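User: Hello, can you help with two protein structures?

Assistant: Certainly.
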Amino acid sequence: MIHVIARVVALPEHQAQVEAELRTMVAATRQEPGNLCYDLFADLDGGAGFSLFETYADQAALEAHRDSAHFQAYRSRISGWLATPPEVQVLRALDQAQKPCA
């Protein structure tokens, strides 16, 4: 399995649009064959930051996600709405207590 933590920070005036686009991405990505988990989180303090916790069956599934039409459309639509470039960490589990999205 491959895990991803992705972080985006919207410009305050585009926070609602970024959240809407992320919610659309969540629905589409959860339907991908190799996606095991795709969860969206917002900053607890009400800020304009969002984090995605993702799990894919393998590298091919991650690449298929990145190549998908919905991911490409999302990236295109939010490009001018972010305060900073997205931060993405691709990880492998060393000690995972439970199955993803259990």
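That covers the first. Now for the second protein you mentioned:
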Amino acid sequence: MSFDTSTLYLIATMLAAMLGGMLVLFGRQENIAALKWWGAAYLLGSAAVAIWTIWGPTLGMLASLVLTSIGFFACGMVWNAARVFHGRKLLWPGLVLGPLVWIATMMTLAPRDASIRLSMGAAIVAIYAALTASELWSERRRDMQRRWPTIAIPALHGFVLLLPILLGVYLRPYDANFSNSIWVTVFSVELVLYAIGTVFVIFMLVSDRTVAAHKSAASTDPLTGLFNRRGFSEACARVIEREAIAGRPVTVMIFDIDHFKSINDRFGHPAGDEILKLFAVVISSNLRLSDLSGRIGGEEFAALLPCSLEEGVIVAERMRRTFESSDIVCEEGPVDTTVSIGVAGGPAGTELEVLLAAADTALYQAKRTGRNKVEAAEELPLSLENWRRKSAGTTSADRAKPAVA
């Protein structure tokens, strides 16, 4: 069974043009620069391949050289689109390096060296495919199980393109019929599959990023940028589990901005919001990267630190002093910026609810004895897990007792 290579190329270019237009439209609607780059690359590359396929025999050498250079430029755009998608800078030299290498090759080789020119072109595209796979490989936010299609598709494309080099240049370097060999047919079929597969990968990446953005929005306080109560609890559970495996203690703090209601009443809610944002900055600037913080209520914040209670008290006192010395002044006068802090620490594996309950008790003590101070919990309440087991055991025993007449 034989395939008409020109027909396969036209099918591939029509499909690529359709997908490119869809990517550009979607990129404009969602304001995603990488999608517009990907779409423009598809449109540019498909136009160049279509013109070369239909009018190639009638075109002069200069026109053919320009068209193929545009195709390689489109490959460079795909690579740079992957960089843009992952927040990296454009590499403008990489866009033009492939076309320049191709032009230099065409200017130095004789017209009879068709197989070498074909192999050089395949090598340029294969290198761009490898660079694209490398950009996707360096993205560490995705686990390996879900990331493998984004790497495998461009890598496979590069491998197929390298087959003409391995089998053509080294085994049959002077075969004049090499351009009509089975490898050209394989490449044209693979080009169709690659166009579809790449768009599938692109939309998979966009979908994953959208899901991640929604998850972040669901767990982040929009005013301060810290975790909300849900996000803080989920993140703390992971840290507590990690520290429990290592046998290290953890410490929890609860912060309550003093007289916050009177600040809102006197200076207005916009001033109150600025105070909340200021305190969020104070927390973030005084914590390590391994520490967690979140806004768990109106003017209440919390933090979890993988450290001992003594170390946590020192950090809490530093934050209290920093916030107190903010010296904010509004039109109505100076704003008191003080905070009461309750601190509780526990051994490895202590549940977050237990630590929060103990820290809340210490916070109440700080507020009751004058505010603007740090209080440490003297002891932890009964472990909630143990309490549940004890309660379940008591209930079962009560049910087992015989009824008294």
